Amino acid sequence: MNENLFTPFTIPMMLGIPITTLIIMFPTMLFPTPNQLINNRMITIQQWLTKLTSKQLMNTHNPKGQTWSLMFISLFLFITSTNLLGMLPHSFTPTAQLSMNLGMAIPLWAGTVVMGFRNKTKISLAHLLPLGTPTFLIPMLVMIETISLFIQPLALAVRLTANITASHLLLHLIGSATLALVNISLFTALITFTILTLLTILEFAVALIQAYVFTLLVSLYLQDNT
Amino acid sequence: MAKPQIKLATEDQNKAICRAKGKVAINGKLCKQSTFITYIRRGSLAVLEARMNFHREAQGHHAGPSLKSAALLSPGVLQATRIFHTGPPSLASVPPLPEYGEKVHFGLIPEEFFQFLYPETGVTVTYVLRTGLILYLLCKEIYVITPETFSTISTIGLLVYVVKKYGASIGEFADKLNEQKIAQLEEAKQSFIKQIQDAIDLKKSQQALVQKLHYLFDVQRNNIAMALENMMRQREQEHMIGWVEKHEEKETIDKCIAHLKLLAKKAKAQPVLHNKTHESYNWVHKAQFVIPFNHNRVLIVVHRVMIPLSTPLAERKNWNASDCLRELRKAH
Question: What's B125's DSSP letter?
């Protein structure tokens, strides 16, 4: 039973053992490996989508940046599938946990920053100061830019967590409102409609993945290309 | 079991015969190899039986002749010569598998479940089971109506709607993608085949042209011969002119003219069908047409063409010496 509003976000246990790892590994079963030249419909559509997305993501990079394409595509597919599976009733979304999103964001961001500083030190340091600032503002601006650089992984993680958690919570709340109103009045029809529209908007959580990878992409792009 | 009445040839002999004829000689008759194997199996079975009899005999029973030497090998021979399927497999043993699955209820429960229940319950099992199960779960609060129920309803409702409406078109889209892939590869294959075919045709035509190369050589030979002939005639004319100029005496010229008149009379006496006789023409070669031959050569087909002298034969009989000279010079 639901004791409070946050029970959907508790770690699911089976006989006292947390099965989060199994849940995280489940979406891999939904992407079978293509065995032949001409595959079944599901694999064909997945291939087509992957091709589309990867072209969209990676065509702005130089060859050095394009070595990250596998990483980006797997990240994208993982977050998309996990979010979409979390939409099903009574399911658990791993990406709603801040710990996991931090675990994804910090290493990736750190990787790009370190790569930029190792290969193009001057240019990376120069990013800390925007062009055309007045001289007396430089120290403050450098500090602000450094802080904004270090906030990037936190922002990535928290953005994803907050969005997923908030949408799930909202659905739950509106569902409980509906439940309460069923006995009182028949405005429930209207509210169910609201739920429906909210759901469709929530399915654009998939767009968050785009935002996630895009921000990462932008940072890598800037650091590799100047 | 009937005792085999076959004298088996030795293994080496049989092998040689098999190799030679592809058949096996058994008892002086040629049989198929499968028959041979059958006989061997029967033979080894007979050997096994003989072995058994031998044992029985050892224990005091009477038995027929036994092949003691082959007794040890017979079970192995039996296993090794087992006939496997050599003919085409019969299609009637396995029923054809269905291509598509059966109907499913709720997308989860296949129709076979209800077919399985049909003998016990009849045709109403689907409806009764469905309604009863749902009501049971709800009444006994096994399935609790929570806020999540409503999100469930919306989510599942939306999904079902989308799948029912757009499912077929998405499937067709996937099929189209696959077809495009195949069409691309097929086109590549066809263009490759066409390229090769064009190359083959080109080579064949080149071969054919090479076959006709002797025409070219003939024509060249003719050309050279004609050129030589012309050269000779020119030289003759030059010589004649020179000779006439040198010996410009009246007598010899009159003699010349008399000879020419005689010739003219002879020519007149003979019935001349047309103006174009052999002697009155000069051979000239003229290029008829040009064929491209190989990539950087051309084949020139040449034709011998006759052009007439400027004066017709009838006028020539009244020539004098100056006329003679003039005509010779003109022709030259």
Answer: H
Spell out where chain A has E strands.
13-14, 17-18
Question: What pLDDT does residue B264 have?
Answer: 83
> What's the pLDDT at B73?
58
How far apart are the CA of A105 and the nearest CA of chain B, in angstroms?
30
Rounded Cα–Cα distance for residues A156 and A215 (Å)? 8
Q: Which domain holds residue A26?
A: 4-225
* Amino acid sitting at position A126: A
CA–CA dist B201, B196 (Å, integer): 9
B161-178 pLDDT tens trace: 888 899 999 999 999 999
CB-nearest to A179 from B150, B152, B174 is B150
**Which residue has better confidence, A140 or B329?**
A140
CA B48 – CA B66 distance, rounded (Å)? 9
Residue keyed to tokens 């024509």: B219
Number of domains observed in the structure of chain A: 1
Half-sphere exposure of A114 (CA within 13 A, CB side): 6
- Pairing type for strands B29-31 and B24-26 reads antiparallel
* Contact status, residue B151 vs residue A89, Cβ threshold 8 Å: yes
- Torsion region of B122: left, alpha or beta (phi above 0 gives left; psi -120 to 50 gives alpha): left
pLDDT by residue (tens digit) across A156-208?
888 888 888 888 888 888 888 888 887 787 777 677 767 767 776 776 676 66
Q: Which residues of B touch A (CB under 8 A)?
A: 144-158, 170-171, 173-175, 177-178, 181-182
Contact B110, B126 (CB under 8 A): no
Residues of A with CB under 8 A from a CB of B: 1-2, 8, 37-39, 41-42, 44-45, 48, 87-90, 171-179, 192, 195-196, 199-200
Nearest to A171 by CA among A208, A207, A196, A206: A196
Separation CA A180–CA A47 (nearest Å): 45
Residue B18 tokens read as 């098999």
Name residue A201's amino acid: I
| One-character DSSP codes across A64-124 | HHHTTHHHHHHHHHHHHHHHHHHTSTT---GGGSHHHHHHHHHHHHHHHHHHHHHH-HHHH
Return the exposure string of A29-60: e unless at least 16 CB atoms fall within 10 Å of the residue's CB, then b.
eebeeeeeeebeeebbbbbeeeeebbeebbee
**Residue B67, amino acid:** L
pLDDT tier for residue B63 given thresholds of 50, 70 and 90: very low
DSSP code at position B172: H
CA distance B173 to chain A (A): 8
Per residue in B280-295, pLDDT (tens digit) is 444 444 445 555 555 5
